[in-house]
């Protein structure tokens, strides 16, 4: 285990809320109050800026990688009440493959289910609900929402399949 901290300029214009490495530790995504998601290639101690993802209209709170068996898929959530699912279509080109605008307030957290359950994303919102987004065989997305807490949901996690 290393006990080393590396710093670098992320080029964000505001506070960074989350940073996630991909499954292999080769790509880093950061998200910020500047409404951007930034992508970096990671090689050893070197971080090389690749591109920005633009799509949210408010601070982006979290990013989460899907299991690589589904391809290079990333989800993001924001104060703008939106969840966006992004897919890499070619090197340095990502596109939105799904948007979920059904929450009534900020979406504070997202988490992918274990890959054995398929491509499923859980969301938690300040509106007091959580939702589960599920990719279907026909390439569409289904969703189920549950009212969970009167004062809002700040976090969500998924347990391994048993």
Question: What is the secondary structure topology, with strand pairs?
Answer:
Elements: E1 16-21, E2 27-32, E3 36-43, E4 46-54, E5 60-65, E6 73-78, E7 83-90, E8 93-100, E9 107-112, E10 120-125, E11 129-135, E12 141-147
Give a verbal description of the structure.
The protein has 162 residues and is an all-beta fold. It contains no helices and 12 strands. The protein has strands at residues 16-21, 27-32, 36-43, 46-54, 60-65, 73-78, 83-90, 93-100, 107-112, 120-125, 129-135, 141-147. The strands form 3 sheets. The chain has a 4-stranded antiparallel β-sheet with strand order 1-2-3-4, with no helix packed on it. Strand 1 and strand 2 (27-32) form a beta hairpin. The protein is globular, with a radius of gyration of 16 Å. The relative contact order is 0.13. The mean pLDDT is 93.
């Amino acid at each position: 285990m290393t006990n080393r901290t590396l710093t670098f300029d992320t080029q964000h214009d505001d506070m960074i809320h989350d940073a996630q490495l991909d499954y292999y530790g080769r790509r880093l995504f950061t998200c910020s109050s500047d409404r951007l998601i930034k992508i970096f290639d990671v090689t050893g101690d070197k971080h090389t800026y690749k591109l920005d993802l633009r799509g949210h209209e408010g601070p982006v709170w979290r990013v989460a990688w899907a299991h690589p068996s589904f391809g290079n898929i990333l989800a993001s959530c924001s104060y703008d009440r939106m969840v966006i699912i992004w897919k890499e279509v070619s090197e340095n080109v990502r596109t939105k493959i799904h948007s979920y605008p059904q929450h009534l307030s900020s979406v504070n957290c997202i988490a992918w289910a274990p890959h054995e359950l398929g491509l499923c994303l859980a969301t938690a919102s300040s509106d007091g609900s959580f939702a589960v987004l599920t990719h279907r065989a026909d390439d569409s997305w289904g969703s189920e929402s549950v009212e969970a807490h009167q004062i809002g949901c700040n976090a969500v996690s998924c347990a391994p399949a048993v």
